[in-house]
Amino acid sequence: MEQACRKASFAALYDLGPEIGSGSTSTVHKSTQRASGKVFATKVVSAAGLQTPGVADQFASEVLALKRCRHPHVVSLEDAVVDENKLYLVTELLTGGELFDYVVKRGTLGEDEAASILSDVGDAIRFMHDQGVIHRDLKPENLLLAKEPHSAFPTVKIIDFGLSKARATRDVCASFLGTRGYLAPEMLKRRTYSEAVDMWAFGVIAYVLLCGCLPFDDDAARISSPNATKKFELRFPSWARGLSKGARDLLANLLQVDPRRRFTAAQCCRHPWLRGTAERSSVPLSSPAMLGRRLAAARATPSPPSRPSSRAGPADYAVLDNDGRARPASRRKNSF
Fold first, then answer.
1. Which of 18, 23, 66, 191: disulfide with 77, CB 3.0–4.6 Å?
2. How many CB atoms lie within 10 A of CB 95?
């Protein structure tokens, strides 16, 4: 811990402000640097929190990972302080909220906006992997908007490196951790894994942005190799009929069950759809949540007889193969 943080009086350096978030072993506050007057976000782990097994090591891993990953789309580390059995992690303050909430509010995004966000996050992951860091908990909740967007596409940054692994060599990992719905098949098989788990999670995030739902069941049950291909068969909901060929190709290469065949972050960044050299659909997609809101609005304000209102019925849950052809749905998707 001493290698990751410096010993100092936090109160002499910062004014700890109001709480803006909390976790099982920590709280997050606004804080003001006394010397400059700049406002930051500060995670505080108390002495009681430090008694929880693994918390101190997790905090040290987070600090080391953030020190390695200085990138425009990774939350920047300002300071890490140990003071009277408390740990303080000082980072830039991001005020735009979670990407998760942004997507829920929007329903789904247009392809241009989704590609802009994914390009930025993909480049951050590429840099992160080049530095030997695996995040291991990528999800929309761990992507924050730098500020609330008003016209242009939002600037998104990766946060929460508490489960990350900063490796000295390209060795594999074995710890089973992360968030249901974003766990890679090799992790669910309880096998060793590499940074490819981040690319699977990135693929799930991309699917969520474009389709408004998770691509697969969000359970964390252990699976066997023969069941993996069936469980993770990539299909698309009927409301994604307008999804472009380039977007489908990117998702297919990211949500690849075999980690050896899955796109790396560098390959992802070179993909024509992300680079803007492949055609993108200009038609905004609609998830069931979006369709439901339109239906509710139509009921609240009846349309003239000549303009039928939008309806969300069973047909909206049919799934499509990668080529866009319909096939029967085996289950309803988890939609936002």
1. 66
2. 13
pLDDT, one tens digit per residue, over 184-237 is: 999 999 999 999 999 999 999 999 999 888 999 877 777 776 777 788 999 998
Overall size of the chain counted in residues: 336
Which domains does the chain carry?
6-92 (3.30.200.20), 99-275 (1.10.510.10)
Q: Which two tokens mark 238?
A: 């009927």
pTM greater than 0.90 (yes/no) = no
Residues 6+ apart with CB under 8 A from 53: none
Work out the burial of residue 107: count CB atoms within 10 Å of its CB; fewer than 13 is exposed, 13-18 middle, 19 or more buried. buried
- Cβ contact 173:165 at 8 Å: yes
Catalytic (active-site) positions: 137
What SS3 state is found at 145? strand
